[in-house]
Fold this sequence. Notes:
Helices cover 34% and strands 23% of the residues. By secondary structure, the protein is an alpha/beta fold.
Amino acid sequence: MTVEFTAVRELRGPLVVVGGVEGVGWDEFVRIRLDSGELRHGLVLEVDRDLAVVQVLEGTAGMATASTRLEFTGQPLSIPVGTGWLGRTCDGRGNPVDGGPPVFGARHEPVAGAPLNPTWREPPAEPVLTGVSVIDALTTLVRGQKLPLFSLPGHPHLELATQIAAQSTVGGEPFCVVFAGIGLTHADAAYTRDALEARSAAGELVLLINTADDPVIERILTPRLALTIAESLAFRDGRHVLVVMTDMTTYAEALREVSAARGEIPARRSYPGYLYSDLASLFERCGRIRGRPGSVTVLPVLTMPGGDITHPVPDLTGYITEGQIVFSAEAHAHGLYPPVDPLASLSRLMRNGAGPDRTRADHLDVAAQLLSALARARQVRDLAELIGVGGLSRTDQAYLDLEQAFRADVLGQSPGETRTLDDTLERVWRALLRLPRSELSMLPASLLETR
């Protein structure tokens, strides 16, 4: 049953305030008809007595209060789900932009999703190998994990995000990627489509592109569409799904803009007070369900305004997620790609996805030894700035050699280069063996005997 109202009181930014409403609920899908006959769409944000606030997905430009009609459908916004999305490129609202027909599916699911019973969850386990050495070796991504990438303005986070989306694997099991680009420039959108063309042609990719000149509301909708599609592919079709969302800072800014239009009291740096719960409602949709073979793994990418990791968006993201991959301004200045700071990065679930019977028996030991050595090398580098390299002991100089070898052979990687885990770990071994054997105290003797 649909109900139509015409008593539009106010047009406020991307919002429409309509009066005299009855039987309207929160998150209800709305069809909006203009005097010209144009059809737009919206969602109910708030209902207060006989007033309803509706966010218009296409924006309110060209609308007039006197001639706008709103049809409330009585249902939340839903989209078709299933394998029909694979290989398709759509805008942030799910409309095809690849020249193909609309996406159809046997089922429809609400884009807002539904809370997952915690007792149904299985702990994340088994790796998602990205083909990027510094991530696979030191911050292994685990199926069902949410692991954000914290970047700095001007750093190549989009290049790394598309590289991960293009070459990630799960060891021969059914796998696909859902890539949600939020607020991209047209140049970045074209780059993303080109970089992911091969995976899309193979039917292993769903690409949702929201550009910076699209309505602000679409940016809020795009990650929810991506996760709804991923949940169906994972938990109904049995695939392991990697969801890459970039840039979540742009998403948060869209949320702030809508909050300001609603006249809400702002919290930190003018973001709404519910920013934490809103981000959690997205990131917590990943995971594994007991008795079902698929999984949803989330890799959100966000830029830290001014390089400030205490900014509300990265700060709150860090509380929700299970680790972080952090970019380094120093590494970027030296021309390294990807410019990841291994000592600031962490995957809290790495032990669930790496080690014997998962990656390689020596993986965890080698990773721990390398991180310890890099921490010592950083201390030695600070000391060398005071007394000069000539004043260092041979052991200290060996640590500087190890750091140089790590940057050149492990960290340094071209955007189109895919490395196997065996190749990555052998590179790590070559760096570690620049140290005296007495310094490799975290490696079992049985491992050292084989080298």
